Amino acid sequence: xxxxxxxxxxxxxxxxxxxxxxxxxxxxxxxxxxxxxxxxxxxxxxxxxxxxxxxxxxxxxxxxxxxxxxxxxxxxxxxxxxxxxxxxxxxxxxxxxxxxxxxxxxxxxxxxxxxxxxxxxxxxxxxxxxxxxxxxxxxxxxxxxxxxxxxxxxxxxxxxxxxxxxxxxxxxxxxxxxxxxxxxxxxxxxxxxxxxxxxxxxxxxxxxxxxx
Length: 212
Prior knowledge:
The chain is mainly alpha-helical and 212 residues long.
């Protein structure tokens, strides 16, 4: 997510070490999901009560269910939406302004996923399913992965629009510039156009009510 510059340096929590107890390790994974907290970009822009990573992924999952594209595996899209940012439970929502190279960000996230899969979930069939979905999204080559990436972009713009209305924010244009123009799926493009038109009308109405 976009954000303002900050001198704060991110400190990553230590990776989990398996206790050897399958049940205890699985519970540790369930508990780590609680870390899917506030998204960095919204925090940087001082949004009151900002959306969490979990909020973001949940709405993406519902958006996936709303598609009319019969060529998509919708169930896979829903699951992929729910795991695509899972590594952030360990590494957090790393923003560009933190200066962490993309290759290092990918390494940290892959390390986190490996830790979840092997140390917490003991490479169970469920763990392998989660890992496969995450990797497919990261590779971005399948039809479903590209669609879910577009949902990621649309959801961010949708959330930015809501913050503009709710908090009268005037500094969120970068969130639209970095999302809507890059959407490629035709249906999600339509949703984006509708959102942009809704935003244009809201700004127009706001301008008309503030003029003397």
